[in-house]
Structures are given as structure tokens and as C-alpha cells.
Amino acid sequence: MPFHSRNDLLIRTSDGRNCVLQEPLEFVTSTSIRYRVPVSSTTDGISTPSAIWVHYPPFGPWWLAGVVHDAAYRGSLEVFRDESWIKALLSKDDSDALFLEALESLGISLTDRTLLYQGVHIGGWKAFDKNREKP
Fold first, then answer.
1. Which of 30, 61, 78, 82 is the most buried (most CB within 10 A)?
2. Kind of pairing between the strands at 34-37 and 25-28
3. With pLDDT > 90 as the criterion, what percentage of the chain qualifies?
4. Which pTM value belongs to this model?
């Protein structure tokens, strides 16, 4: 199983959109690389335009892939190396590729994962740059 979490993994904040992890979320890639989104990381689901939420809402079946992707963009994602967790600090391209693999591991259809991936790959530069500017 690529994802390791419990059903009560997240708690929503008062705005109904942003969430804070109450326990770590792990994702293991097809090449056995272990990534972890640590406790207190924030996420707003996948960043689709509200006009397409009827088809691609922020909290759909791709939810966990969005949590990993947000952590990768925000610089809080960790990777297991040399028996300890360290900051992953993935590039934008690597973050997007990890999102695509996470979508596939969740059983998201080829069409849906291609559209979601292309959306972040083409349109995610502003979010990536903004998140990496934060201290």
C-alpha cells in the first residue's frame, strides 16, 4: 500500500478549506522511496479552479496525492534517508512527478490524472515560487 494513514488524518480549520495534519502521512513510491508529510503541515486539497469543482473538487479521491503535492511545493515534505527523516526539498518538476505517481497509486484514471498533472505542471509555477519564498 503506497499510502499509510488513518481515516481521521486531517482536521479542517474554521474556513472549511484549509486542513492541518494531526498525524504524519507517508507515501512510498514504486521505487520504494519513503516520503512523509509531517504533523502540522497544511493543505487545501488540490488547487483546481472553482469553475471545475463539479468534476474536480479539491477533496475528491485524489485528496491524499494533493496533500503530498502541497507538502512538496511548500518545502515541508520529508524523505527517509540513512535511517532518519530529512527535508526532501524537491524541485517543481520532481514535486509534480510525485503527484502524478501518487494519483496513479490511488487508482485515478489515466484521463483524470493526466488533466490534474498537466494543471499543476503548467499552472503551478506561481504557487511553487510563492511557497518557496516563505521563510
1. 78
2. antiparallel
3. 55
4. 0.87
How far is residue 134's CA from residue 61's CA, in Å, rounded to a whole number?
Answer: 29
Cβ atoms of 90 and 83 closer than 8 Å = no
Residues in the chain: 135
Q: Measured between alpha carbons, how far is 22 from 88 in angstroms, rounded to an integer?
A: 20
DSSP string covering 23-65, please?
Answer: S-EEEE-TT--EEEEPTT-EE-S----GGGTTTS-TTSTTHHH
Residue range of the domain that includes 104: 3-133
Rounded to 5°, angle at Cα 97 from 43 and 120: 55
Write out the three cell numbers for 83.
535511517
Q: Is the pLDDT of residue 99 over 60?
A: yes
* pLDDT score recorded for residue 46: 87
- Report the range of poorest mean pLDDT among 8-17, 85-94, 106-115: 8-17
User: What pLDDT does residue 90 have?
Assistant: 96
